[in-house]
Design a protein that fits this description.
about 15% strand, 434 Repressor (Amino-terminal Domain), 6-stranded mixed β-sheet, Rossmann fold, alpha/beta, about 45% helix
Length: about 350
């Protein structure tokens, strides 16, 4: 017959003290006399009692766990960030708990509330909205260490790590225009996130800089998922006056665009040129390889972790807003229009 686990109640009975006194003695909080504490510890050792370390940490507010709330962990960008955060935090004795917002502000609010109730020590967060961020501002006001990653929100006093989304998009559109393209499609997501807005701004600004009017019919809107991007691409290129080039705002949309164009029998770059924001593994396995706007992803996660650890260690320095430059990696997916 399997022996029942020894509980705090058993230890208290063996030491002839209340359960509350036993808990204080074993958890080193509150006052317990030396003689009583010794008696409780001897009873615990004799019975083989193992304290619930998580419960103790929760009571003391020292649970060594940090929360990461990305938009979507299935996105290769966030998956890599999660890996790098975990590696860097583990070096300092912290663990990482991941919960995706699925780009929903409502879900993001609920997650932060739930994770805070668990006593997590800090957060790395990719805000789901550039405007609806009162819950994030409250984190900062409450003194909860928080680092914003990939996205920036106004009027929130948190460290942030992002890239030059607008500049990277401008460089890509400039390259397409330099190759003779004027009808350039833009495949974006339907969310309110900061990166989507900045990349759209870069697209519009680059066209204006070349004297090209923005044609709203060339802007396709989709959820940031491969299957939705396939449908959006097919709708865009089913037009009689379809674009000669396409820019996609993230790697999932780039993959969807590739599949959508292939299903229509359109060839890259002979029928349509393609540039995507974010490099990804398959970009160099396609024929031709895909030109991309690359982010320094190997630097983003480790830096965010270090900024958070500094806050956890008590740093009161002014918040840092760090922006990395992007890099246009030219491969074989762009040619002059036919």
């Amino acid at each position: 017959m399997k022996q029942k686990g020894i509980t705090l109640k058993d230890v208290a009975a063996a030491a002839n003290v209340s359960r509350a006194t036993a808990a204080r003695a074993l958890s080193s909080y509150g006052y317990v006399g030396d003689e009583t504490a010794l008696r409780v510890q001897e009873a615990a050792d004799r019975l083989g009692y193992r304290a619930n370390r998580v419960a103790q940490a929760l009571r003391s507010g020292q649970l060594p766990i940090v929360g990461f709330v990305p938009g979507d962990i299935q996105n290769p960008f966030f998956a890599r960030i999660a890996h790098d955060l975990e590696v860097e935090l583990r070096k300092q004795g912290h663990n990482l708990l991941i919960a995706s917002s699925e780009e929903s502000v409502k879900q993001e609010k609920e997650l932060l509330e739930s994770l805070r109730s668990l006593g997590l020590r800090g957060f790395v967060l990719a805000p789901a909205s550039a405007t609806d961020n009162r819950h994030i501002a409250k984190l900062a006001r409450d003194g909860v260490p928080c680092v914003l990653i990939d996205r920036v929100v106004k009027d929130v006093r948190c460290d942030s790590v992002a890239v030059d989304n607008e500049g990277g998009t401008r460089e890509a559109i400039d390259y397409l225009v330099a190759n003779g393209h004027r009808r350039i499609g833009f495949l974006r997501d339907d969310s309110r996130i900061f990166t989507a807005q900045e990349r759209l701004g870069g697209y519009q600004g680059a066209l204006a800089g070349h004297g090209i009017s923005v044609d709203e019919t060339l802007i396709a809107v989709s959820r940031s998922a491969v299957e939705h991007a396939i449908d959006a691409t097919i709708r865009l290129f089913s037009r009689r006056d379809r674009p000669s080039a396409l820019f996609t705002v993230d790697s999932l949309m780039t993959q969807g665009a590739l599949l959508g164009l292939r299903s229509m029998g359109l060839h890259i770059p002979h029928d349509v040129s393609l540039i995507g924001f974010d490099d990804f593994n398959l970009a160099t396995f396609t024929d031709p390889q895909i030109t991309v706007v690359a982010q320094p992803i190997s630097e983003i996660g480790p830096l965010a972790a270090r900024l958070l650890l500094e806050r956890l260690q008590g740093s009161a320095a002014p918040p840092q807003q760090i922006r990395f430059p992007t890099r246009l990696i030219v491969r074989g997916s762009v040619s002059r229009p036919r």
